[in-house]
Amino acid sequence: GLTVSYARRKDYIAMQQLDITPALDYQSESYKDAYSRINAIVIEGEQEAFDNYCKLAELIPDAKDDLLRLAKMEKRHMKGFQACGRNLSVTADMAFAQAFFEQLHTNFKQAWDEGKIVTCLLIQSLIIETFAISAYNIYIPVADDFARKITEGVVKDEYMHLNFGEEWLKANFEASKAELEEANRQNLPIVWAMLNQVADDANVLGMEKEALVEDFMITYGEALGNIGFSSREVMKLSAQGLAT
Ligand code: Y39
Ligand code: FE
Ligand code: FE
Ligand code: FE
């Protein structure tokens, strides 16, 4: 494939997808059917992100105000994506979305019950935020005009959320390293399975699975590097569960 500098990635994603995606009919039954699940996933994800940051605020009193600010943004994102569904006259399949997040939801809750800040941050601020960033980056070039504007605003916030996790884990790197490796081993394979589960629906929306994986790997790998892992460790961690 093409090799492009990071600075040109956004253009590359747009070109690559516009090149291969036939004109999308946002009102077709097939588009709206796929949208009822992807839109629900995003709405449920934003709701759970709100809950998770409220929970994290209880676990990290030093960062309580910051975390409650992030939580508030997630609520706003959720309302934005609900408006996107209404705009297309799509009813979100929330039961599907709740089942979609079940495993990560359970793992976050268990970690929170045990007071495991590092695991909670890895699940929400690294894995889920990276999933959101890759999905939103890949969606923007193929979205309808209304949803594109909303999503462009949202993705900027998601980078801030990822940055919160990076900064906290970087400041506590040596003490967090072993727990990060274990939490990554438990949770990253779940994300690859989730991606496979929605790949067909994403494709109907003009989003290529290959592009989603690529963007996820770049963003997640950069985050792990920023936190303090070596390139070798980053490779090992970010590919965990990918081939299964
Ligand atoms: O931090 C956040 O706002 C994350 C909750 C939102 C998750 C969004 C999950 C997106 C997955 C979409 C998959 C489409 C292929
Ligand atoms: Fe290629
Ligand atoms: Fe969000
Ligand atoms: Fe977020």
Short summary:
With 244 residues, the protein is mainly alpha-helical. Helix content is 80%, strand content 0%.
Explain what this protein looks like in three dimensions.
- Helix 2 runs antiparallel to helix 3 (64-87), helix 5 crosses helix 8 and helix 7 packs antiparallel against helix 8.
- It is globular and about 50 Å long.
- It has helices at 9-20, 29-59, 64-87, 94-113, 117-139, 145-171, 173-204, 209-227, 231-238.
- The model is unreliable at 1-5 (pLDDT under 50).
- It has 244 residues and is mainly α.
- The chain binds (1S,2S)-2-nonylcyclopropanecarboxylic acid and fe (iii) ion (3 copies).
DSSP, total strands: 0
Q: Calculate Rg over CA atoms.
A: 17 Å
How many helices?
A: 9
The rough form would be described as globular
Structural class computed from helices and strand pairing: mainly alpha
User: Which small molecules are bound?
Assistant: (1S,2S)-2-nonylcyclopropanecarboxylic acid, fe (iii) ion
The CA-CA distance between the termini, in Å, is 23 Å
What order do the helices and strands follow? HHHHHHHHH
Strand content: under 5%
Largest sheet: none
Q: Which whole number gives the mean pLDDT? A: 93
Q: State the low-pLDDT regions, or none.
A: 1-5
